[in-house]
Amino acid sequence: MPDHSTIAPFPGSAIPHVGTYRRVLPVSLERMYENTLDWEHLPHVHASSFADLRCEDAGPWGWRAWTTDQVGHEALIELRLDKKCRRWITRNLEGRGKGAEIWTHVFPISEQRVDIVVDFFVPDVPDDAREKVGLVYARLYQTLYDEDVAMMVERQRQLDTRVGGGKVGSQSQPRRISLGRRADLQLPCTTQVGGREYVVAEVGGQLVVYPAVCPHQSGPLAKAELKNGIVICPWHGYGFDVRTGDCVTGQSYSLSNLPRLVEAGGELTLVRL
User: Fold this and answer.
1) Rounded to the nearest 10 degrees, what angle do helices 29-37 and 130-163 cross at?
2) Residues of the chain with CATH 3.30.530.20
3) How many CB atoms lie within 10 A of CB 250?
4) Quick one: average pLDDT of 216-228?
5) Do 53 and 43 contact (CB within 8 A), yes or no?
6) Stated pTM of the model
7) 134 CB-near residues (< 8 Å, 6+ apart)
8) I need a labelling partner for 94 at 20 to 30 A (CA). Which of 12, 110, 197, 261 fits?
9) CB 110 within 8 A of CB 25
10) Rounded distance between C-alpha atoms, residue 213 and residue 184, angstroms
11) What number of other Cβ atoms are within 10 A of residue 104's Cβ?
12) pLDDT tens sequence across 66-105
């Protein structure tokens, strides 16, 4: 593997280079691109860094959005993806950090392993302060990628489960499963039927069933708090009423094709049609 640690700043750049962050991640290049274009996850997965985000424009090219940090500072950030060069460039256009540029290059090592090199360019930084500023940026990016890795790895696991071995929707998978007596259930609980995982919970004295993963990008609904019949995906903030399946946050997704709970002889059975 080539040594990318000596990559130089952009030739002729008038913005001082203050530091570099490098890391090997256990994810594919496809997941990295997906994560890069996914502006929606920022205020949810990275809540300690982004209190709010208002997207102005987005597409395969990247995105541009106003962000607000936890102390109320705003910044207009633009990210542009260049797949041909396997890089993306993030620029602070307005507000806090105006003029800063962050260049990220990604180098595939194997199918599920990439090497990333992130260079930080920050204007108006005195020579004797560059190292300190660079370390601040490096620590921030370490935290961001710590938070992103778990999401990307789980996203890949969910995709592999769907396409591998006919696990989901396979006719060989049981279409019904006994849950036992209602009084014996410890709710909420998770169970599998028909190759998919579901959460069984109680809302207002009634049992409800909903998917353990979000229909948007397979976020872990099973790990999210169920409050007043509403579950919020921790990855992107999509909210669903588990009693109706409707999305309550305005996106065009729903919890559909849910299994039925059947009670007979005191025994509960989950049936997927």
Assistant:
1) 110
2) 17-163
3) 8
4) 95
5) yes
6) 0.86
7) 18, 19, 20, 120
8) 12
9) no
10) 25
11) 19
12) 999 999 999 999 999 999 999 999 999 999 999 999 999 9
What is the rounded distance in angstroms from the CA atom of residue 118 to the CA atom of residue 23? 9
ω into residue 16 within 30 of 0, thus cis? Answer: no
Over residues 171-192, the mean pLDDT reads: 84
Query: Span 151-172, mean pLDDT?
Result: 72
Cis peptide bond upstream of 188, omega within 30? yes
Could you give the CA distance from residue 103 to residue 214 in angstroms, rounded to a whole number?
A: 32
What residue spans in the chain does CATH classification 2.102.10.10 cover? 176-271
Which helix (H) or strand (E) element contains residue 134?
helix 130-163
What confidence score (pLDDT) does residue 173 get? Answer: 67
DSSP secondary structure string for all residues of 12-76: T-SSPEEEEEEEEESS-HHHHHHHHH-GGGHHHHTTTT-SEEEEEEEETTEEEEEEE-TTS-EEE
CATH number of the structural domain 17-163:
3.30.530.20
DSSP helix/strand/coil, 138:
helix
DSSP character for 187? Answer: S
Report the candidate in 271, 240, 254, 233 with the shortest Cα–Cα distance to residue 41.
233
> Cα separation of 205 and 37, whole Å?
41
Q: Class for domain 176-271, per CATH?
A: mainly beta
- Kindly state the average pLDDT of the residues 210-227: 95
187 close to 205: Cβ distance less than 8 angstroms: no
Report how far residue 21's alpha carbon sits from residue 141's, in angstroms, rounded to the nearest whole number: 8
Distance CA 235, CA 259 (A): 24
